[in-house]
Amino acid sequence: MAESLQIQNVLQGLLALQEEPLRIIRLSEPISAAPTSQRTSDVSTSALENPSPASLEADLTHYKELFSKLRFSYLEQVTKEKFLRAIVGDPPLIVEHAENLEVESQLVEIKAVLKSQKDHVADMVRELDARGRDLSRRYQTVTLQTTLLGQLPEQIDTLNATLAELRGRNQCADASVTNPSLALPLPATLGLAEERKAKVDEVNTQLKALQQAVPRQTRILEGEERELKGLEREREMAVQRAREAIERKKEGGGADDLEMKGRWLRGVEEGLRGMLEVEG
Q1: pTM score, two decimals?
Q2: Peptide linkage before 91 cis (omega within 30 of 0)
Q3: Residues of 130-165 as b/e, b for ≥16 C-beta within 10 angstroms?
Q4: pLDDT band at residue 31 under the 50/70/90 scheme
Q5: Cβ atoms within 10 Å of 178's Cβ, excluding its own
Q6: Residue 116, CB half-sphere, CA atoms under 13 Å: how many?
Q7: With 219 labelled, which of 38, 79, 205, 225 sits at a CA distance of 20 to 30 A?
Q8: pLDDT > 60? residue 41
Q9: Cβ-Cβ contacts under 8 Å for 44 (sequence gap 6 or more)
């Protein structure tokens, strides 16, 4: 509740400051404020009522051109008057070449001073332009933040109502069904979330290791399956030979080839041992 009141106070203060719209100071305001003054230039008068960067730029260009024309007319008129006064004067004014050189030297110095002043004014204009643009951006930011701040009380009330509803549901639920994790404060909830995240990361790491081990285990299993198939074939062949030997015994009643071969090999072995006098 205290936060809502604080937001309301800040919002009222910002709205009070914005009751008078921000605008660039109009240099022509003292002239146009007079009831009998009328603008005779061809620039739209709506620019004075609703100034904008484009309209101010157009006004500046217009006044520069107008001032250039007026200066030319003024210099022309003053030069004519001085020339006529010099001719019709008694005695007439005669200017020597040395005086012209002196005046030209003074004119060079005056032009240099004027150029430095123009450069200074140009620097000031650029600085004012940068400051104006920065202030415009800051004003737009403050306006946007004021709009968002005006929406905060309603959003806070909605969130408080939702929170109260969730708390009521949690209290009305059965104690055996209620999840204790849902009633944790924010720090404990964040800690629990970090713990669950760490467990998930650990499981993902183990799963990744198992996935990497699958190809190797698959190759080992394939090799063992091939060996098993070879042993199965050998077992089948041994069983088949044993069955054939049993059938031959039943049919002939005597020893099979393997038994005869074994007896012969045993006799050969005994004969060799006797010849070489080697005891078994």
Answers
A1: 0.39
A2: yes
A3: eeeeeeeeeeeeeeeebeebeeeeeeeeeeeeeeee
A4: very low
A5: 14
A6: 5
A7: 205
A8: no
A9: 55
Q: What is the mean pLDDT of the chain?
A: 77
